[in-house]
């Protein structure tokens, strides 16, 4: 497990990270959610040792992360960059060797990754000759070539078309399934909602919520229900112990204050047919707004 | 990780960085064109003067004139008018006409000095301590040494370029999270130093061949020992400049800003070049230049070549140079670490220095 404990960091007078703690569990995709400027990139740079923390620790398997453990991490920086004039396969292999692999293994991994990412045909091209989307896939390959034990990816899906998102997602899920903890940041709620198992929400340099996606939804769920009946649902306003959020002809959304869901359902059935009765689960977007 | 295995990975990382720098360079057309032009220029300097000299000057001679012993290409003509015609049409350099007991030389626009000196009778000369090389040859060799220093010194700008490329593309974040910053710096300096040593050796091997082809085989005896000194001085001088070039690259974030931080380093290269070119006949200035670290790389080999410095002076200066390489590389590695991850505008040296501590 990758554990971040009480990390703080200032830039000048400003606290960019304030007492940040969270875990990235093995075998799971952890979404790191926050608005632009919330501190995501700074946190990731600290994990990778590109930036120093002013307080706090980062541990991997219980041992503090140092320069000698970091080569086993895979990192995709926020601002993409590889050598523009170096050939794709050569560049990936070189990075593999820089992480301590021998040449043959690095070459084999490069070939496998390029085919996984549909880049085999571009292996001999210079990076700058590729489209931005393809360059981004190469960047993913660069982060994965050395079979990292931990993956830290800053906005890995931004700038990818939907097909590329699926390709990259498959590749990342496969790593997670092999027990690699994957931490990826995003400011796009829908992306995180769809892809992550766990969520860490950061706002203004502090963690405002963290846990599994489903836990968070349950935790932030108000007891809210949606009821659809045959005719007009206006009578629900007069039921004691609830608060109507939205009313639109036969459809009503309400929060329970003191009544139970079964009481409301029974009242509805007494008046006629009920087409649907469902609990409303908040989206991450709603949690995010609330937590922030 | 144990000390020895982290040392091993430091060495491996340095080697990989050096390898990449070298292969990038060896594949660029610019490198081969530049180096090819230099080798050609070396041959041209050695061979062309004797080709262009083209034998003794041509003269037209009217009547019977005694030209005993004069090295001239003589064309006999009938009268003065014909001789003047040949001079005007540039077919001969001058006309020689008998006048009284001596001769008159007729030229076109300027007195034809080579014809006159061929006709002059020089008094016999004996030298008590003959110089090894003529002033012309001495100046030529100094020019070549200074030029090679200038070329390789400026070549170090490639290190600044590659550092900025890494900062600008942000691949530096991946590199820094993977290998020690000092390995990155060491690899860059080592890679470019190996390239430079390779080029210097090729030039050092080509120089005797060029001299032989140019008919200056007699010079080999004086040039070879000087080359023996020049090579180690040039290599150490390059490492010194390479470290400074790397810092210049690490201080800025974009290629467009590189010019401003390169100016100082360019002065460190141009200064010694012009110093040696302008002051090579002023022993006091040259003595000073031959001990100051940056200019020593070219000034000391020149002094040794000119026979103005003893062997111990060469060794002392080489030792000073090696010492300053160690100091400068250590300083540079701290500044490089401190500024490599700073982006935005130009990083002030003081800020880079302080940053390395945190």
Tell me the β content of chain A.
Answer: 25-35%
Rg over alpha carbons of chain A: 24 Å
Shape of chain A: elongated
CATH superfamily of the largest domain in chain A, called what? P-loop containing nucleotide triphosphate hydrolases
Describe this structure in words.
Chain A: One of its GO terms (biological process) is response to antibiotic. The complex is a heterodimer of chains A (292) and B (358). With 292 residues, chain A is of the alpha/beta class. Chain A folds into two domains: 2-211, Rossmann fold (3-Layer(aba) Sandwich); 221-291, Alpha-Beta Plaits, CATH 3.30.70.250. Chain A has nine helices and 14 strands. A six-stranded mixed sheet of chain A has the order 6-7-8-3-9-10, sandwiched between helices. A four-stranded antiparallel sheet of chain A has the order 2-1-4-5, with helices on one face. Chain A is elongated. The two termini of chain A are 26 Å apart. The model of chain A has no long low-confidence stretch (mean pLDDT 88). In chain B, strands 2-1-3-4 form a four-stranded mixed sheet, covered by helices on one side. In chain B, helix 6 packs parallel to helix 9. In chain B, a hairpin with a 2-residue loop joins strand 3 (94-99) and strand 4. Chain B folds into two domains: 12-47 and 132-355, no CATH class; 58-119, no CATH class. Chain B is mainly alpha-helical and 358 residues long. Chain B has helices at residues 3-26, 29-53, 80-88, 113-119, 135-155, 157-169, 171-178, 181-213, 220-250, 258-279, 283-289, 293-305, 311-340, 349-355; strands at residues 58-62, 73-77, 94-99, 102-106. Chain A binds chain B through residues 45, 48-52, 67-68, 70-71, 73, 75, 77, 79-86, 94-95, 97-100, 142, and chain B through 1, 6, 9, 12-13, 16-17, 20, 24, 165-166, 168-180, 341, 358.
